[in-house]
Amino acid sequence: MPRHETPRESLSTSEQDVGADAIAGLGSSPGPDADGDAKHSRSDAQATASPSLWRHVRRDVVLLGAGSTGIVIAQLCFRSILIVALAPTAYGRLSLILSVYNTIFIIGASGLPNSVARYISVSSRAEDLAIVRSAIWAGAWPTAIAAVIVATISAMLLRSPLAFVFAAIGLSSLVYSLLTTGILRGRGRIVLAASVLPIAAIGEVAPLAVLWLSGLGVTPLSAFGVFCLGNLIGLIAGILCVVRTSPRAADASPSTENGLGSVPSSRELLGFSLWLAAATIAVAIMPLIMRSIAVIDSYAVVAVIDVALVLLSIPQRVGAVIVQAVIPHATRALRTGNVHLTISRREHVVLIAPFVLIAAVIALTPIVGWAFTLLGRPGYAKSAPYLALALLAAPPRILYGLVQGILVAHGEGRFLAHNAWVITTVAAVAMLAATVLGSTLLAFAMFVIACWAIYLNGLRRIHRMATTGAPSAYPIAMGLSPSIPNN
Question: How far is it, in rounded angstroms, from Cα 455 to Cα 400?
Fold first, then answer.
């Protein structure tokens, strides 16, 4: 089967029509005032749509989710080795560097993976390679800026010029390995896309475990070097997958196949991607702000908070997986109509209740203390209330992935950036004030409230678009009319 047949060519116009309804029905339930026939018709449409579009979205979520789960498991193993091998102050310093690294790299990525996935998913084979070339050039200078920033900070905190070299190579590799996953998702090669970053994660954990078990000792610098090596391994794997799935010369020649009609320049591609990057940075920077503010207390407190934020990374990755799966399918569906979303109160309760229950168990029992005592680090028992709060932030992190995917497909990048930055700024001030007044726990609670605010405001935007019938900003999403405002 040609690599573009699924999902690019296999959907007929009628299937795309009902596919748009399927996306519209994700997590939705008809209102009580809806006409009976309309309800029946919508249910039939969604049932018919299941094998055409939602099946692909669901499959992609499972595959990408499996890859993301592997990354999280590897990250937890990586952090567990560091917790055992390093003193709390040394681990706190390294965790701060890794937090900076994992936040600033977003500047280099600049939203390009999702933008490229969207472009390629609705392009012809003839346009595929040209889009890839534009994306490579578009990411060059943002990657250089991000690499210099992270390398400088890493060298200062680790007090070694080697840290500068490690960070520059590692961050550049991470950015472009993410770009390869976007290319592969656009081509419908989900299995390969889902495998690139897990390979990088294994490339981080395996050498660190060997270093630790060998008795040579683990230092913050050596652990950071291993972390960056893993990113380089991931880039090599991503390049091999992209080359393997590139269209043949015959396929890449001009054809009459329906596509974009024009290939975006690097500037056009980067322009839309920067809005997505701004929104992503604003959300991703909140954990970094929390860690940085906790330094006012001590690096030991940073280490305790880091345990909770690592746990929160699991639902954050689930949300990211949903975004990655929804964007290409929703973008194609927008060619036949708008995509809307409704999440009922009951569905909110079903998702939130388990997290609240687990949070209560963690907060009211000594289970966390027992776990860290077994690891020989009883001091980390203080992370229990932070872990409980992190679990309360999990539902909005998951649900926001669905909201963000729909809004990106609508071309609402500007709204996403504005929404995230305003709320993050207000939350940062509140977190700083709480910490200065002597309550880091209250500052963490402000962080949780901000997660909910970002999600609920995005959901309100979608409800408003659904009720007013606002047209999608599809030309903006495709970067074809950058002079027209999209909100």
Answer: 5
In contact, 46 and 67? CB cutoff 8 Å: no
Which tens digit of pLDDT belongs to each residue from 427-470?
A: 999 999 999 998 889 999 999 999 999 999 998 888 887 777 65
Task: Of 208, 189, 253, give the one whose Cα is nearest residue 75.
Answer: 208
**150-199 pLDDT per residue, tens:** 999 999 988 889 999 999 999 999 999 999 999 998 888 889 999 999 99
CA-based end-to-end distance of the chain: 40
Cα separation values, 173 from 104, 223, 227, 373, Å: 13, 17, 11, 37
Counting every residue written for the chain, the total comes to 487
Of 168, 402, 389, which Cα lies nearest the Cα of 287? 389
Work out the angle between the directed axes of helices 266-294 and 88-109 (0-180°, nearest 10). Answer: 160
- pLDDT tens figures, 294-349: 888 888 788 888 888 888 888 887 888 888 888 877 777 766 655 555 567 777 88
Domain ranges of the chain: 26-477
Phi then psi dihedrals of residue 380, to 5 deg:
-80, 0
Q: Left if phi > 0, otherwise alpha if psi is -120 to 50, otherwise beta: which for 471? A: beta
pTM above 0.85, yes or no: no
- Residue (of 331, 321, 273, 263) closest to 122 by Cα position: 331
Contact 414, 486 (CB under 8 A): yes
Q: Are 383 and 308 in contact (CB under 8 A)?
A: yes
Distances (CA, A) of 442 to 86, 250, 447: 28, 61, 9
421: Cβ–Cβ under 8 A, 6 or more apart, which residues? 278, 279, 282
- Alpha helices by DSSP H, 187-253: 190-213, 220-245, 249-252
